[in-house]
Amino acid sequence: AMRHVFFSEREVARSPWIPKDTKAREIKTAGVIGCGTMGGGIAMNFANAGIPVTVVENDPKALERGLGIIRKNYAGTVERGRMKPEDMEKRMGLIKGSTKYEDLKDADIVIEAVFENLALKREIFGKLDKIAKPDAVLATNTSTLDVDAIAAATARPEKVVGTHFFSPANVMRLLENVKGAKTAPETAQTAMEMGRRINKVAVLVGVCDGFVGNRMLYAYTRQAGFLLEEGATPEQVDKAIYDFGFPMGPFQMSDLAGIDVGYLVRKERREHAPTNKRYAYTVADRLYEQGRFGQKTGRGFYLYDAERNRKVDPEVTALVEQVSKEHGRTRRAIGADEIVERCMYALVNEGAKILEEGIAARPLDIDMIWIFGYGFPRYRGGPMHWADEVGLAKLLERLEHYYQSADSDWLEPAPLLRKLVKEGKTFRAWAAA
Fold first, then answer.
1. Per the residue annotation, which of 164, 327, 385, 401 is the catalytic one?
2. Is 164 assigned a catalytic role?
3. Cα 126 vs. chain centroid, distance in angstroms?
């Protein structure tokens, strides 16, 4: 598994979707729209690589606050002895704040990093199209939204690409680059080369709801949600996933990221696909309505003290039992093996669908996304490599078992998985064919 990760980390930078002789545009200057958590972190990446960057924020106070957080982040690195004070000042000197879009007119790449709202992003790209120079790359830091719909707001969709950074953007290694239907090879190659320059593990993927990482995450976390409804508790699920090798389980992760963030993404999805049962009402939605947003409010799936130490909350246990009752479910004891199988096999199954649909070029692309973006245990090699090691026949047999016993289409085995088992192949063999 570790050998697989070592070689895949190098191979993933060369996407088979980009012709080998494609040249990237040189990035001498960059622009970022939004100086919040994501925008500030993205700006730091450019400054760290010695690339001047202009950060645009509509509200002067928000801009000042954002630049202050960037300085505070650098100061913390200096305090820990990992950076010299003069290097901090040099990097801060590369970051310019502005409230005017016009200040982005000379940037070689502009990355929009505002809230996940399609209408807002389309409005911004319409403005950028009129201001940015003709050969500039226009990128959107969306985690779920349709890059093609955003590109359509411009007269240059071939210059538009998705650049999905992971939070905190100045720390997390993964960069999920998204190639739209009209994204030019040069544009995609520029995004991949940018990733290398700012020390990211860049992976090129296609357009679908949630792309590769978050689409698979949703299959995994919804399965965790079903386990709650059927009899498990948040702490039981989190412990089983932690023991499997993740740094934290799905509910602890939700509290860390912010239950409000997940709720707003689900709300956006429901509005665009109101009949899709995949975005059904959840325990997390109830917590959001109670103002329990996770660590930031001291209450989420768990209770947190001032040092953010967590403990089980009896109110959440009662809420979970109430939701089970409302859904007509009889709660039962659920073991750690079932938790891991249901969550991890659902993850792999969604990965198989993604490969078959051509949203990811290779199983190794999925493995690198999940190791560097979501904490999948490195020593297991990523979900698709791990599935090959478990044995696809065993994985299919257990999926079929859960699919037949559950009142849900969530665990229906992917056609590719059934095909590979029938042919006695692995994901690795399928990719090599």
1. 164
2. yes
3. 25
